[in-house]
Specification:
The structure holds two protein chains of two kinds. By secondary structure, chain A is mostly beta strands. Chain A has strands at about 5, 10-15, 20-25, 30-40, 40-50, 55, 65-70, 75-80, 85-95, 105, 110. In chain A, strand 7 and strand 8 form a beta hairpin. Chain B has strands at about 5, 10-15, 20, 25, 35-40, 45-50, 55-60, 60-65, 75, 85-95, 100, 105-110. Chain B starts with a strand and ends with a strand. Classes of the chains: A mainly beta, B mainly beta. The interface of A and B includes residues 58 and 101 of A.
Chain lengths: ~110, ~110
């Protein structure tokens, strides 16, 4: 079984709709991250969490919110989706030390019409 | 701004050719450096890493050396295979283990 899972894998929604992307991990890591990937821009950090009570904004947090429901679960919400949020979204986890590897989920492909 | 700059693609090579993908970074202190690979339709997988100056990361025939004097972490492979076709991302971490990624370099290896 995969260590980091994301649901759904693909999603089509309409402008103005609220949607939630979910991430679960079985690695026992405290740190979790949400990124979006756009062609030519690489990956950009949206939000990150170092433990259940910790939430931090990343580079591009506007229009997004997150919830850390448990150590193993970290959800990303788009309160009112817009077309320029069409992207590939990745969840990642890591251990607590500086320089530790981040482990990525398979991604969620989101299309906002 | 982006603190990791990597060679733009796409790169197309013949099988058994030599590969270099350049990556430079800006950072204070001594960040850890990474190369990730993304195969079509999949998430990112760690390819190799180096955590201090002069360290060499290696995996699956790929190598990269942490060069502090040139702030570089170039990826190399002596003989590429068709199965190496993927997108390669250079990344660095900061003291909080936030990652900064390059824009990715697409590699296609033709038989």
């Amino acid at each position: 079984d995969a260590d980091v899972t994301q649901t759904p894998r693909n999603r089509i929604t309409k402008t103005g709709k609220r949607i939630m992307l979910e991430c679960s991990q079985t690695k026992g890591h405290d740190r979790m991250y949400w990124y979006r990937q756009d062609p030519g821009l690489g990956l950009r950090l949206i939000y990150y969490s170092f433990d259940v009570k910790d939430i931090n904004k990343g580079e591009i947090s506007d229009g997004y919110s997150v919830s850390r429901q448990a150590q193993a679960k970290f959800s990303l919400s788009l309160e009112s989706a817009i077309p320029n949020q069409t992207a590939l979204y990745f969840c990642a986890t890591s251990g607590p030390m500086t320089g530790e590897t981040q482990y990525f989920g398979p991604g969620t492909r989101l299309l906002v019409l | 701004g982006n603190s990791v700059t990597q060679m733009e693609g796409p790169v197309t090579l013949s099988e058994e050719a030599f590969l270099t993908i350049n990556c430079t970074y800006t950072a204070t202190g001594y960040p850890s450096l990474f190369w990730y690979v993304q195969y079509p339709g999949e998430g990112l997988q760690l390819l190799l890493k180096a955590t201090k100056a002069d360290d060499k990361g290696s995996n699956k025939g790929f190598e990269a050396t942490y060069r502090k004097e040139t702030t570089s972490f170039h990826l190399e492979k002596g003989s590429v295979q068709v199965s190496d076709s993927a997108v390669y991302f250079c990344a660095r971490s900061n003291t909080g283990n936030q990652f900064y990624f390059g824009t990715g370099t697409s590699l296609t290896v033709i038989p």
